[in-house]
Design a protein that fits this description.
alpha/beta; Beta-carbonic Anhydrase, Chain A; 45% helix; globular; binds zinc ion
Length: 203
Amino acid sequence: MSASEPACTAAEALARLKAGNARFVRGETRFPTVHDGVRAALKQGQQPYATVLACSDSRVPPELVFDAGLGELFVIRVAGNVLGPAIAGTLQYAREHLHTPLFVVMGHENCGAVQAALDARLHGARQKARIEALLDNVLPALDDIDLGAPPEQRMHAAVEANVRRTLRSIRASADAGAAVADGSVQLVGAVYDLDTGRVQFLD
Ligand SMILES: [Zn+2]
């Protein structure tokens, strides 16, 4: 959310997506290759082993971070890994129809959405209307942290508090709350460290 100049033109970006997909189809991906057989087997249906709600940040793709292949993770990504109606519906779909036993809400250090919420709270920084609507989902999490802490510590606390708030919001919905309570699904929070690449699961 901080780059002011595009990395390339839209046409170049589209060409990169097409070239990447062509490598994928040929089985020549830069990342772990998906064999024809895997793709063919998945045509029958998916049975992902976990559902992950993560940030849209390009540095935190769950499939790469967890070294998971095609068909293994059911992934929802939205800036700031917040909950909203479409996301709640996607989580419910994952539970009702895909029966993934584990749900993970994963935030990450130096999250632009969390930083924007901190800037709004601390300095009254304004964003365009739809971004502000998104930040409305992050701002309440900041009530749980010490805003007077040093910036790095404050950021770390805000990222974790934002994950915990999303976890609480999920648990607050009747059916998800019941599923967590009776142990039929497990819901965990996590924070990805951009430096080390390590995912820390929260207690
Ligand atoms: Zn982020």
